[in-house]
């Protein structure tokens, strides 16, 4: 098939490469000319402008957006004016699912089809494939099945879920039509919320292991420092890279995230390259909002989101206020940072 890709960042460019390897024809556009030239040298057709991009696509056109959520509406406005009835637009980024519901209705009035496709795979997707969570009209999904099949990882050597041989569908191949417009990004939203929780659990657990030698450390003996009652119980110097490695093999907490954690710790046991400021691009927040509106308890995912805020110093004023209150009621003087 032929597909146009707008947005050639970390994921978009490798998705184009995977499609080219699969025998598809790709027309590409990016605000960065270097990104387009790179892929043009690998077999894609570059477009110097939206008009040029659209001209290079045969009707009915399929345009896939891999751009930040904040840019989707403005891009759709520019793009829709250049497309024709029957053309299909895919948003493969991390848009809010409610925006997909609105966009689908707006574009339908122009005779344009719209699919929201939650895409997971990151920088490893070129080789591993991309997990695709799809929302929108069933006919449009069926039309793009060859594209989805090429991008998805396929069954590979993963063992089958018992009884799955009796089930139909594409879930085992790594892509799934989840429901009507918005359903794909809703599933991806919750996927990312779970990701926050899993990452936080690994981080907290390994941090407990890192501090398991607390009994060897000198601690101030004053009213401002809680005593360590049993220092003999905390005399362990764990090799965290080795712990992560052994957990990968046969443990019930093994996962791809743990594989990546083990690799990071082996390369740099102290993680000196990373300042520890963890961003959140929206999906975790939206997951918690949905949980609240559904009255579906999500304490772990909520705590994981708040931990990301803390990592960026968003709690600094609250912490200063706690220190101020302790000083006001008890004259407690805080220790210098790091002591």
Task: Provide a descriptive summary of the structure in words.
With 339 residues, this protein is an alpha/beta fold. It is 44% helix and 11% strand. It has an 8-stranded mixed β-sheet with strand order 3-2-1-4-5-6-7-8, with helices on both faces. Strand 2, helix 2 (33-40) and strand 3 form a beta-alpha-beta unit. The protein starts with a strand and ends in a 9-residue tail after the last helix.
How are the secondary structure elements laid out?
Elements: E1 2-6, H1 12-21, E2 25-29, H2 33-40, E3 45-46, H3 50-55, E4 62-65, H4 72-80, E5 88-91, H5 97-108, E6 113-120, H6 125-128, E7 131-135, H7 138-143, H8 145-151, E8 175-179, H9 183-210, H10 240-247, H11 256-267, H12 283-294, H13 299-311, H14 316-330
Parallel strand pairs: 1-2, 1-4, 2-3, 4-5, 5-6, 7-8
Antiparallel strand pairs: 6-7
Helix pairs in contact: 9-12, 9-13, 10-11
């Amino acid at each position: 098939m032929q597909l146009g890709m707008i947005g050639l960042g970390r994921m978009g460019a490798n998705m184009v490469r995977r499609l080219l390897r699969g025998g598809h024809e790709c027309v590409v556009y990016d605000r960065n000319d270097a990104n387009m030239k790179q892929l043009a040298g690998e077999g894609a057709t570059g477009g110097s402008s939206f008009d040029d991009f659209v001209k290079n696509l045969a009707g009915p056109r399929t345009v896939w957006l891999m751009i930040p959520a904040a840019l989707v509406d403005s891009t759709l406005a520019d793009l829709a004016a250049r497309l024709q009835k029957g053309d299909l637009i895919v948003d493969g980024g991390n848009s809010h699912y409610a925006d997909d519901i609105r966009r689908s209705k707006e574009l339908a009035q122009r005779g344009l089809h719209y699919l929201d496709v939650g895409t997971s795979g990151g920088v490893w997707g070129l080789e591993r494939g991309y997990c695709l969570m799809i929302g929108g009209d069933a006919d449009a999904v069926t039309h793009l099945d060859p594209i989805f099949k090429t991008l998805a990882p396929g069954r590979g050597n993963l063992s089958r879920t018992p009884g799955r041989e009796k089930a139909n569908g594409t879930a085992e191949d790594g892509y799934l039509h989840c429901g009507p417009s918005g359903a794909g990004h809703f599933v991806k939203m919750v996927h990312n919320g779970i990701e926050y929780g899993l990452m936080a659990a690994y981080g907290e657990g390994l941090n407990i292991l890192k501090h398991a030698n607390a009994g060897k450390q000198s601690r101030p003996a004053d009213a401002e420092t809680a005593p360590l009652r049993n220092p003999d119980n905390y005399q362990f110097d764990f090799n965290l890279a080795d712990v992560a490695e052994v957990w990968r093999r046969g443990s019930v907490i093994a996962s791809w995230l743990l594989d990546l954690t083990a690799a990071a710790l082996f390369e740099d046991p102290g993680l000196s390259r990373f300042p520890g400021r963890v961003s959140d691009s929206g999906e975790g927040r939206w997951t918690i909002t949905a949980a609240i509106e559904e009255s579906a308890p999500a304490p772990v995912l909520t705590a994981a989101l708040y931990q990301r805020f803390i990592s960026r110093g968003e709690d600094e004023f609250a912490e200063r206020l706690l220190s101020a209150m302790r000083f006001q009621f008890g004259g407690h003087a805080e220790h210098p940072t790091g002591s």
